[in-house]
Structures are given as C-alpha cells and as structure tokens.
Amino acid sequence: MNKYFKFPVLFVATVALSVSVTSCKDDDPSTDENALDVQKTKTIEQYVNGVVVTTYKSLADESVDLYEACVKLKENPAQENINAVCQEWIAARKYWEQSEAFLYGAAADYNIDPHIDSWPLDKAQLDLQLKNTTLINNMEENGCNFDGFATLGYGLLGFHAVEYMVFRDGGPRKYTGGVDKDGVSYGALSETELIYCAAVAEDLRNQCIRLEASWTGIENVSADKQSILEDAELEPSLNYGEIMIAAGESGNKIYKTQIAAYVELLQGAADIADEVGNTKITDPVSSGNVLDVESWYSWNSIADFADNIRSIQYAYYGNVGSSVLDVSVSAYIKSLDATLDNEIRTAIADAIREIETMPAPFRDNLTEAASGNAKNACNALLDKLDEAIELIQEK
Hints:
Strand 1 and strand 2 (about 170) form a beta hairpin. This protein is globular. The longest helix has about 40 residues, at about 40-75. By secondary structure, the protein is an all-alpha fold. The chain has helices spanning about 40-75, 80-95, 105-110, 110-115, 125-130, 135-140, 160-165, 190-215, 225-230, 240-245, 260-285, 300-315, 330-335, 340-355, 370-395; strands spanning about 165-170, 170, 180, 185. Helices cover about 60% and strands about 0% of the residues. It contains 15 helices and 4 strands.
C-alpha cells in the first residue's frame, strides 16, 4: 500500500535553531522597527489574527466537540451517536482543510500535519492493533496519555482513523454492521473500536488545540485548553503569530524582512495548490486505486479539495470570507501588478468551481475526463502564485 505521509515543502525552523526563511534580499532596509512599513505590518497582523488564529480556533473548538461526541458514543453505543460523531467529524474537517495554506510553523515544526492527516489509513495494521489487548486496555484507562500511544504510526491516527470507525459509503456507519458498496462486509461497531476511536479523537483534539495555542500564545486560549495542553505536555515553545507579526524587526531570525513573511504566505498557498492538483487529484486517477483517495470512507474528498483552495483565498484576501481587504497580500500584489492580482483571484474562483463540479463521489470517478479540469485549474492557480512570489522577490 502506498502511503502519502504529508510533509509540507516549506519548513520553518525554530528561533532556537537560528534558521532563516529565505527572503528576497538580505539587505532589505526593514531591519529594525523604525524602518518597518506600517502597511505591511498591518497586513501581516491581519493575516495572523484574521485568518490563521481564527481558523485554528474554530478547528480546536470543533475538535473538542468531536472528541466529546466520540466519548458519548463509547459510553452509549447507538446509531444516533454514530451519526453525531460523523457530523462533528465533517465540521472539524472543514476547518482543518481550510488551514492547509499555512502548514508551515507549528504544523510543520511539531509534525502536526502528518500526525493528524496522513493517508491512506493503514487498515491492515489498524486491524492488528484493534486485537492488541494491552493497547486497548491502556486506551480505555488512559485515552491517548500513555507512552505506547506515541509509537503508533501516523497511518493509524488522526482524522482518517476516526473516519474509518464511523463512516461507510459517504454516510454514518450502521451500528449493527452491513455490506459496503464494494461488497465488503463489516461487522457491528465493537467495544475495541469505540475505545480506539475515542483515544484517537482525544489525540486529535490535543494537536488541534496546540495549533491554536502556538499561533495566538498559550495565555490567550481558554483555561480548559491550557489545562489539556499541560496535562498532555504539549505546551508550545514559541508564539508563531507573534514572530510573524514581528517580521523585519531586529533580531527576528525567521523573518528577517517583511517580504519574507509575504513569501512564506504565498509559498504556503502555492504548496497546497500543487498538492491538490498533483497529488490529491492526480495520484488516485493515475493509480485507479480507491485507497489512494483522501477521505474516501466519508466521500468528503471534493469538499476537502475545495476547502484547501478556500484556504488559499482566505490567506490571499486577508480574512475568512469573500471580500478582499486593503490590508492583504492581494492588495499588495495589486499595487505592483493589478493584472496579476486579478488573475490570481480569478484562478482561485476557477479552481473552486472546477473542483466542486467534479462528479461525486470522487472515489467512483477516478478518470481524467472527470477530474482533468480541476487538476488543470489548480495548476493554473499554482503558476499565478509562483509569478507573485517571483514578483515580490524582485522588489
């Protein structure tokens, strides 16, 4: 089975390692507070607080609700509670996919992205783990808070492990068991699956809260979230939002210039445009293997892909919405090349439209005819984002 353990192309190292993001010019005059461009500072601050922190807070909140729904299902196995977990999974999933334009920072440094979103699920290994009495007993007693949990591979964790437990054929799994559309029988939801599902959902919750705290500062999340991170020993060591907002200030070893922060933002957007078009869509079509499809038990793939492009839109527009703010990278690109800015905005809309008009479910339509327009639209967007990166690096 091929494994797509996801690692972002662009990795932001910690301040302690003193590794810098490549900037357009090391001799950029923005090397102290007095030389900073006020508009750029406002743009970066709006991006951090209005897009990254806003998205991660919603993700963390929904992941808490997902975990609580999984606990309720474990304590009271019933079809209505399976249905509720599925609803909460879709809600949390949306915000995760809408965050994938900024998989740098904490998501990369703490390996949170591969930890919670590797696919395909390693089903054969998972089936073995469900028979591991010691593991299941530890999960029942301690949830995800025991040493052995950390040894589980990424293909056994996160969104897709929970998805497998509760979804079949794009809808809630039947509590009493059944036969899926591929003719494969599945049994009734077992006690070991319920225990495993709750433990994985707890770990997913912890990682999502860590993302929020990493970008807004642990002191700025709720007391309950602080307690969860402290108990799990997952307190972030850096405030990534603070560091990015301080781009160009003297001593900032990650963002030596404000343009370096702009490049990071655009590169993150370009990376996910590339991944959607050339991995998430192209690889399953090339292999013809349904197991290569992300979110195929829930049939949520097309929504995943569209939300990935929305993450680009939000990052570029400067807010979680459809309006373009004056304090946005879009506005900056427009000031340099209005035609290019319009082309990027058009390419974003085109990519979302082409993805959402693919025949559903994606897992049943793994053909070039069904997906080619969406792939091409993602690559067209990628090309325009690359042009924008090149443009600002020349300034």
